[in-house]
Hints:
By secondary structure, this protein is an alpha/beta fold. The protein has 24 helices and nine strands. Strand 8, helix 23 and strand 9 (416-418) form a beta-alpha-beta unit.
Amino acid sequence: MAASDMTHSEAPQQKDLDKCVHCGLCLNSCPTYRELGVEMDSPRGRIYQMVQVSEGKAAITDDYIAHMELCLACRGCESACPSGVNYGRLIEAARAHIDQNVKRPWHVAMARDFVFGSLLSTRWMLSLAGAGLYLYQASGLQKLVRSSGLLKFFGRLHEIEMLAPSAETPFFFSQIGKVFPAEGEKRYKVAFLAGCIANISFARLNEATVRVLQKNGCEVHIPKSQNCCGALHVHAGRKEDARLLAKNNIDATLDGEFDAILTNAAGCGSTLKEYDELLEHDAVYRDKAVAFQAKMKDINEFLASIEIRKPEKPLAMTVTYQDSCHLCHGQKIRVQPRKVLAAIPGVTLKEMALSDLCCGSAGIYNVLHNEMAMSLLKNKMQSVNATGAECIVTANPGCMIQLQAGARLHGKDQPVLHVVEVLDRAYRS
Length: 429
């Protein structure tokens, strides 16, 4: 680990804290404030607490930690803020500062070390976990457990189990390291970052992404030495783990002379585009991170920037679109996914109310803060159902898992698709 990584405090920077003028225009855009009406669980209230800790007027207490961790880090407040407060950077810094200064109970520390230090960054561990999940589902055990209602006797375990993603075999890990040729004339050379859990639970989405890119004249490289992007680590305050992952992804892609480096996961993309901030104190990787960030694009952003091949046949489908928080608020990408959908003949888009309000997924938030997440999901499904759309479309795997549970619990079991999957269906029809 480079010495430069550890020579600074992870605490929120004063220049970022000073931007907040406490006007309160962010309050209505904050999911936790909308639910609870508690000032300390609003962006303004959380920033006030960060300032108190930063100035030494308050300690890092259990209450402070609870308020910071209850935040979804959806960054909806950033879109509402007239002062340009980078709240995402502040909440990530506050959590990293907590992680840097607080000794957690041994079992919590052990679990965090396993998940963030080993599981998410090791392919064979993810494959083993995926195989276990596949057996649980394919054997019928999941169906039996759900129909029995047994989990209702174990607190919120029933709701948490409903959020279990599917294991899609064969896993996409087998495609990592391969190169897929463009269909027809080669227009672009791109790298595709396949993620971590997505290789297990969204293998078909990753395959659809490759096919869509090929169809649009892209030679698609799946870099062999790529790994997890580090987004979940950053959100949990584990910035040192994230920095190691970021350096590896930079090394895996930067020398490939790619026209673009792509992801189909909005949550991942937000962090991938902020590698320059993550590595700003690293003398070796600082400039490399800036160069990487300049080529990093969300798949919707890339497709909307090129002249995509129009599907030959219409795809009769009525959809509603859920804005993924880290796409619309973090990356400021709103029009592009809708532009891609509009380019598909036969697809009708029915906009939902509050489409950019968080669905409650937020990485692993829906597991750690399940009650809040499920309340937000119920509200989201009311907006979905009001459109009458037959399909829910979004741009982030985490949102897809959450919305699939919502469709089962509060909807009409509507299918949930990624924008790219809709386009892929049109091409294959």
